[in-house]
Amino acid sequence: MADLGQIVKAYDVRGVYPDQLDDRLVELFGAAFVEVTGATAIVVGHDMRPSSPHLSASFAKGAVRRGADATLIGLCSTDQLYYASGALDLPGAMFTASHNPARYNGIKMCRSGAAPVGQETGLAEIRALVESWLAEGPPEAAAKPGTITQSDTLNDYAAHLLSLVDLSAIRPLKVVVDAGNGMGGHTVPTVLARLPVDLVPMYFELDGTFPNHEANPLDPRNIVDLQARVLSEGADLGLAFDGDADRCFVVDERGRGVSPSAITALVAERELAKHPGGTVIHNLITSWSVPEVVRERGGVPVRTRVGHSFIKQEMARTGAIFGGEHSAHYYFREFWNADTGMLAALHVLAALGGQDGPLSGLVASYDRYAGSGEINSTVDDQAARLAAVRKAFADREGVTLDELDGLTVTTHDWWFNLRASNTEPLLRLNVEARDEPTMSKIRDEALALIRS
């Protein structure tokens, strides 16, 4: 019997194919998804991994057996699936393992209107149903099975994104895009074809074995090729997408990575110009600059946990206009509160193309502090190491602690957050300070405690 505890995560399903996640199991997930959401119709999409087409078909088969109609939209990015869920007002399932290696696959699920399905919003119930069916046998088929139809939503997805950003007056831009052999190679040409952009494509061939580099642009090793190409082409900027193209990372004209926090602040300012006084969500590892910019532009910043299901819940609860994470996920009220790296990229193009200066100058005002980036440490006992760090900093003058998500330690001059991975024996450290020497000192002190 499959160990679902190994593959059902906080807000998706992810595991090695076919050892942990196979067609039979996925068919049960399709049936359980219909049962828990009460759906009479669903939409299903998939990425370019070799196992994705038949896994998505198996999920649809399970849904149809329970009486729901299934619309298959085929190859798509995750935010294209969210578009379909929102535009068609249907629950949806996306087959992808994002930036994980080729042997992995997974399911990201949402309710109608791209509302998240996580542990607290249906995923626990779906898991329980699948476990019961694994033990007792599959559920009875519905008296009237559903139907399967196919649809192509790519052009409608592109048109919707372009309707949300005014790009009518931008100057011509030269843009290098590294799709990492992921779904950006499918979506980017259609979206950018309508703009005055000289597109330089890199690794646009859809290949779920990722022959060139891992499709995770937050790892500096994976944007080296993009940085070099931006410089050799004399491009205005570079964009890098992850495997399912829901995250977008930006490189400036000097070949230097732009902090996702700076992009969050830039987009927040633009959204606040459209929606004065609006609420902006930021997770607790984004830079201090994000809530500062939001307040300076008359908005209301709201701090939340890391993770898309938590962000989306806060977006819905507060009516927020925009949300950003330091992992380069960007969420928009006008996109059903879902995350779309492509829409964030369009905002960057609009901001850059609407003035004459370089991107480095444009983002400088949003990049105010020294940050460590995320540093992962493998540990034997996550709880013990967290406790040791907490004890070491708790009694210091001027220090405040909170445990919204892991441990956050804050002073006037610096802060750090230490969080345990949900899936690996790792602790994740993020440090920020008002200057580089202070950041380095706190980073090294925390790491010494973590790794002792």
What does this structure look like?
- This protein has 452 residues and is α/β, with parallel strands linked by helices.
- The chain folds into four domains: 4-153, 3-Layer(aba) Sandwich (Alpha-D-Glucose-1,6-Bisphosphate, Chain A, domain 3); 173-258, 3-Layer(aba) Sandwich (Alpha-D-Glucose-1,6-Bisphosphate, Chain A, domain 3), CATH 3.40.120.10; 260-363, Alpha-D-Glucose-1,6-Bisphosphate, Chain A, domain 3, CATH 3.40.120.10; 370-450, Alpha-D-phosphohexomutase, C-terminal domain (TATA-Binding Protein, 2-Layer Sandwich).
- It is built from 14 helices and 22 strands.
- A six-stranded mixed β-sheet has the order 1-5-4-2-3-6, sandwiched between helices.
- A hairpin with a 4-residue loop joins strand 19 (400-402) and strand 20.
- Helix 1 packs across helix 4, helix 8 packs parallel to helix 9 and helix 8 (260-274) crosses helix 11 (341-353).
- It is globular, with a radius of gyration of 22 Å.
- The two termini are 39 Å apart.
- The model has no long low-confidence stretch (mean pLDDT 96).
- Residues 6-132, 156-255, 261-369 form the Alpha-D-phosphohexomutase alpha/beta/alpha domain.
